[in-house]
Amino acid sequence: MIFRVLLLSLFVFLSLQHSAFSIQPSALSLQPVYSLQDCINIALKKNPEILASKATVNKSFFKIGEARSGYFPQIDLSLGYQRSYLENRISEEYSKQYSAQVSLTQTIFDFGKTSKQVEIQKQLYRATEWQDRDAVLQTIYNVKEAYYSVLKAKKQKETAQEVLRQAQRHLDLATGFYEVGLKPKIEVTKAEVELSNAKLNLITAEKQLSQAFLNLKVAMGTVDMPDFDIKEEDYVVRKLDENEAIQIAIERNPQLQAIKFNKQASISTEELIKKEYFPLFTGSANYGYINEEFPLNKKWTVLLQMSLPLFSGWSTKYKLAEAKADTAYYSYKEDSLKQQITSQIKNLFAQLKEASQKIETLKSTLKQAKENLDLAMGRYEVGIGSSIEVVDAIVLYEQTNTQYWQAIYDYNVTYAQIQKTVGWLE
């Protein structure tokens, strides 16, 4: 009996050394390895959503210059040649006329309409800047979420590989026991089924990892870039104060700040529309030459003009009502968004606390699951454990490992959501 046990132990040792599914050292990869900050930097440079947002900011900035043009005179040059026919003309039926003139028009006083238009465009520009900041924060969050998803998928693949190794080890042991008559055939069959499931799980894990990398490339805005690997990100418990985060969010949340500047622009628009009831004082001057034949006769005119709108079909009244409705809309949106931000941050802090507690609990549970797996496999090796005990231990280890890395992912993504909501770019 002792001889049979020694023979079996030698067989198991040799089979484990030559297992087809044992993990071998991999060749050095030539792929670049990016950190989380590297991925974020690439996204900020190449993501088309970011580039489109920057273009919108530039467009809004140029509108300020367009509004300022009202301070300056408008100068036009015109050259003309006219040929006309007059039926009652005595000398000849046709006449011709040459002309050349420079005209200048300048607003003298408009009761602050131009300055108010410039003010409105500045406020809209600031709103666009905050909208751009929101686009940046959203892109950073998308990259972080995708990056942590890749890390989770990598850990799930490693878990699947470890489960496959353990399943192969179990099958080798069961086969050895069966061949020496210590275990029935059903033990081998169960181990084979377990190994097949482990292979399927590894295939799924590899697919999920590939999809996670693709999602990361999409978030970076570089879907066609060559394959790369990522660095591990250490799990760090963040010390945050919920009330302080809410206060900072009210002051720095880009969506809220954009609404505030849009509301200010609506208030300024009301003031601008009211100025349409006031007169407009302009001056114009023309200098040029005109005649039917050369040389042309000199001509100039100077005009000071006041225009006062008397009736415009109540268009000013309705434009004013529209601007007031816009102001009310942004006021309500501001109050609503403040409530949403407060509620969202409270929920995110609750999720962050839950994930942190899960991590601490699962950390010890994972250690126990690994010890339980080693113990079950050790008992099976010496012939005193059961196949069911080994399978249960493998399943428990796989589930606990998956739950642990899911909790790590949830914690990191939740913290990234808090950063986005509060308005932190780091």
UniProtKB/TrEMBL annotation:
One of its GO terms (molecular function) is porin activity. Residues 150-208, 338-379 form a coiled coil. The keyword Ligase does not apply. InterPro entries: CyaE (IPR028351), OMP_efflux (IPR003423), TolC-like (IPR051906). Residues 1-20 form the signal peptide. Keywords: Cell outer membrane, Coiled coil, Membrane, Signal, Transmembrane, Transmembrane beta strand, Transport. It is found in: Cell outer membrane. GO terms for cellular component: cell outer membrane; efflux pump complex. Belongs to the outer membrane factor (OMF) (TC 1.B.17) family. PANTHER family: OUTER MEMBRANE PROTEIN TOLC (PTHR30026:SF20). This is TolC family protein. The lineage of its organism: Bacteria, Pseudomonadati, Nitrospirota, Thermodesulfovibrionia, Thermodesulfovibrionales.
